[in-house]
Amino acid sequence: MTSPVANGASPGPVPVALVTYSVKPRGGVVHTLALAEALHRAGHPVRVVALGDPAAGFFRPVQVPFTIIPAPPTLPTLEERVFANVDALVEGLVPLAAGYPILHTQDCISAQAACRVRDAACGSDLASAAGRAAAGQPPVVIRTVHHVDDFTTQSLIDCQRRAILEPDRILVVSKHWRDTLQREYGTAAEVVHNGVDAARFQAADPALAAALRRRAGAAGRPLILAVGGIEPRKGSDTLVEAIAAVRRSGRRPVLAVVGDHSFQDYRDYRERVLSSLPHLDLRLGDDVVLLGTVADAELPAWYAAADVFAFPSTKEGWGLAVLEAMSAGLPVITSDLPVFREYLRPGRDALMVPVDDAPALAAALTAVLDDQRLASRLRSAGLAVCTRYSWDRSAAQHQAIYAAADRGVPNFAQSEPSLVNPAPWTGGWARRDLHDEASADSPG
Q1: What's the CATH architecture for 198-387+421-439?
Q2: pTM for this one?
Q3: Mean pLDDT along residues 100-115
């Protein structure tokens, strides 16, 4: 399955198709495009394959070859949507698979589709439709598991399980999910961290940032930014309760929420969160501003416009938005999840609060807004964190994995030391404790 060799030259890197379920700005898609572009810069033959509207394209310009397979019409239930998308991806992947010996999938839907194409290449009609590679070998399917969804129907639970067990090689973006897959699925996974284009987020236009701040109605008010839309996994209900508590303390912050695209249907949750605003003495469009999907070119300026980034998630694979915010020099507050402790030191790089704890989140927000010395230290620490993660580094790790997969080297579970091993969070916010923690490793 080594890529073709011309005129006796050394074999080149094996072509890879990075396959994702969407063209919209969700975390897995952002990861896919950034990784593909880093691979392309390194000279690795790569193509992005996604479901979507070919006429509309991706949410941003893409600097690599890509194929957008027409997505099926939206169907009433999540199960129907998932399986229709799998079928559509299978149909679109069949003519492409012969040219890409490695199909690197980024989600449950694309993994299931790629495994079907691989299995069909062992002798079914699908294989003949694809023309099969000259060597007659089926593609290798690699899957990156960003996180595991909490599906409630058996058909989707089974689909997700197959999408973890059936690929030839499993990657994860954090040790937390490596350990989870080993414990719950008996599957070995390799850890390849995400990256961040730090230079992009550090180069925001100050004039645009000021204009966006005015657009959000925060010209004379503190601006708190959240990314990911209104959905359960992002802890949106806890966040609006915390904003209300900050407001009751005499401050008038604006919460600006970026994002609204999700494959799952969170309309009931969204309605519940928004309907709670009047009871919390918050006004939609004034205290809470829903920005929806913002232009990708504006995203760095939105980070630059804000005073603090709030990310009270209940579950994350890694938290791409955390690195984006830190690259922009924005103080960060996250929930206290194991995945964040892999690369953040509580109280030093970011403030961390227990999951679903609105009073603790309000106290952390107040501390950052009121204490410029603390905010400055968090900014400096966050910028230092980002220097450890780049997409070029991530691409180099992926290239080594692709080469091993091409040679038939078995999958292995990566074992690496933890970047940080902080003491457990003990609860409570004391101004003195925040200063001590934030200053421990600060320059000077």
Answers
A1: 3-Layer(aba) Sandwich (3.40)
A2: 0.86
A3: 96
